[in-house]
Design brief:
The chain has 228 residues and is an alpha/beta fold. It contains ten helices and five strands, in the order E-H-E-H-E-H-E-H-E-H-H-H-H-H-H.
Length: 228
């Protein structure tokens, strides 16, 4: 897993900024952590994952309260933040959290480019590129190719979805991995069917709905097969 293995090592820096495409990279990091923990992050009281279109002062204050709360396990607590944009006020508040972290806290901040942050914030973090890590996840055995999906006709897409969901115990994780692969394919191929913003937005909607308890994974993927 190359240098990004440091994200999950018990002994290491308390804060990382990882750069790469959002939200695919953040999802891949979150899934890797869930695999290491042996359970979904939503079921782990000492893990926090959230995506922010705009990270504001209220979000910084909420993070400070969360990391200051009582730890429920004897391992690291992980805070994975996928941030599209951030206000100057929020950066100053975030800086205080990074300067005085609670013991056992590990911050993984995922952004598209490090220039998003003030130099003072960057100086408190180890900055890593996540593109190699994401490539490893997408090319891993058992993952379906987003490029194959986009190049296929409707019957072939539906057959691919059927194969993807064949293992009921792993169906949801397989589907989320596939969405990451599909997002990468869409971003890499501007000639993909439909306009890129519309296709990406539709994928985001499906990913958000799939994260809800009791969501119909097959129907959501079939919607993508029809709409992309």
């Amino acid at each position: 897993m190359t240098k990004l293995a440091r994200l999950f090592e018990p002994a290491g820096h308390h804060a990382f900024i990882v750069t790469g495409p959002l939200p695919a990279l953040a999802e891949a990091i979150g899934q890797t952590l869930a695999e290491k923990l042996g359970r979904p992050l939503s079921a782990d009281a000492d893990s926090y994952f959230n995506y922010f279109d705009r990270f504001g002062i209220t979000d910084s204050r909420d993070l400070r309260q969360r990391q200051a709360s009582r730890q429920l396990s004897d391992r690291l607590r992980y805070f994975i933040l996928a941030i599209k944009s951030i206000t100057p006020e929020a950066q100053n508040a975030l800086l205080k959290v990074l300067e005085e972290p609670a013991a056992g806290s590990r911050f993984i901040i995922v952004v598209e480019r490090p220039e998003l942050f003030l130099p003072t914030v960057l100086s408190r973090c180890e900055v890593l590129s996540g593109r190699d890590f994401l490539s490893e996840k997408v090319e891993a055995p058992g993952l379906d190719s987003g490029r194959q999906f986009l190049a296929s006709d409707l019957p072939a897409r539906l057959q691919l979805i059927k194969r993807l969901l064949g293992d009921k115990d792993r169906a949801r994780n397989q589907a989320l991995d596939f969405l990451n692969s599909l997002e990468l394919a869409l971003r890499a191929d501007l000639s993909a069917r439909g306009s890129l913003p519309a296709a990406i937005n539709r994928l985001f909607v499906v990913r958000r709905l799939m994260s809800r308890r009791g969501s119909a994974t097959r129907l959501l993927l079939e919607d993508l097969a029809l709409s992309l």
